[in-house]
DNA sequence: GGCTGATACAACCGTATGGTTGTATCCATG
DNA sequence: CATGGATACAACCATACGGTTGTATCAGCC
């Protein structure tokens, strides 16, 4: 279960509005770090750090493109995240549904 | 768009293995904070803080039950989180799919 | 009312995080 | 090969976070 760390990284990476916006913007995979940085009210280095966080979480990749590096959202990484969430929500929801019945029964019994 | 903060909170709350486990355990809604705390290798207060984080994110609720408070996973909060993720993934995936075609075309042109 | 179990809260500590500025490295191009 | 644009990295600062211990509050029960 060494993916526990990765789960933390993925959710952690998504827990920041700037980073979520970077993911969205990087879907096109047309902008370099500098262009990306120009869009946010913070320094180049700060955006660079955000990109690094996303990269460690496997949500984006960087790729040389001429003289600048292009940031591109990693659809595989995203779908991994997606499957993760699905799995969680599925198992949670399954139990919740059963519990909800239980609670309803309990309430009926309660009243 | 005041839910931006909430999104941060939800993802942030999920970015910790202990908290995810608490959510899972609290689905039954049968354990008090103390029982919950007994399951993790950390102090009562630490678990209490984790529960508080989940509560602020709307993922669990606390409810009096006799002399102890029972922690219960909030299915509504969870489904809100779920919808959030769905929305993100949907918009992202939609663009990704289009972009993937684009990339494929580019590659064919490239090689 | 007073005891006691259970929860809440406050103060503190070490470390991680998000931001800054400055410097170094890299590489396409002239 | 030298220049310059673009990225990477290091050092630093403030604040947030995850954990601890200790104390206060709250509610049930005798």
Which features does this protein show?
homodimer, Arc Repressor Mutant, subunit A, 11% strand, two-stranded antiparallel ribbon, 111 residues, 68% helix, mainly alpha, DNA-binding, 2 strands
Task: Give a topology summary.
The structure is a homodimer of 111-residue chains.
Chain A: H1 3-14, H2 17-25, H3 33-38, H4 44-56, E1 60-65, E2 68-73, H5 75-110
Antiparallel strand pairs in A: 1-2
Helix pairs in contact in A: 1-4, 2-4
Chain B binds a DNA duplex (30 and 30 nucleotides) through α4.
Structural class of chain A: mainly alpha
Largest contact between chains: A-B, 32 and 31 residues
- Whole-angstrom Rg of chain A: 20 Å
In what order do the strands lie side by side in the largest sheet of chain A? Answer: 1-2
Helix content of chain A: 55-70%
As for the number of domains of chain A, it is 1
Write a concise synopsis of the structure shown.
Chain A has helices at residues 3-14, 17-25, 33-38, 44-56, 75-110; strands spanning 60-65, 68-73. By secondary structure, chain A is mostly helical. In chain A, strands 1-2 form a two-stranded antiparallel ribbon.
Please, could you describe this protein's structure?
The structure is a homodimer of 111-residue chains. Chain A is mainly α. Chain A has a single domain (3-110), classed as Arc Repressor Mutant, subunit A. Helices cover 68% and strands 11% of the residues of chain A. The first copy, chain A, contains five helices and two strands; from the N terminus they run ααααββα. The first copy, chain A, has helices at 3-14, 17-25, 33-38, 44-56, 75-110; strands spanning 60-65, 68-73. The first copy, chain A, has a two-stranded antiparallel sheet with strand order 1-2. In chain A, helix 1 (3-14) runs antiparallel to helix 4. The radius of gyration of chain A is 20 Å and the shape is elongated. The relative contact order of chain A is 0.13. The mean pLDDT of chain A is 83. Chains A and B meet through helix 1, helix 2 and helix 5 of A and helix 1, helix 2 and helix 5 of B.
């Amino acid at each position: 279960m060494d993916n526990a760390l990765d789960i933390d990284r993925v959710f952690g990476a998504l827990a920041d509005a700037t980073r979520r916006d970077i993911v969205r913007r990087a879907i096109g995979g047309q902008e370099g770090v500098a262009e990306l940085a120009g869009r946010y009210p913070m320094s180049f280095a700060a955006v660079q750090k955000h990109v690094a966080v996303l990269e460690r979480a496997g949500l984006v990749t960087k790729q040389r493109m001429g003289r600048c590096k292009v940031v591109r959202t990693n659809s595989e990484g995203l779908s991994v995240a997606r499957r993760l969430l699905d799995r969680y929500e599925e198992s949670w929801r399954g139990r919740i549904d059963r519990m909800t019945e239980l609670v309803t029964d309990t309430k009926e019994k309660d009243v």
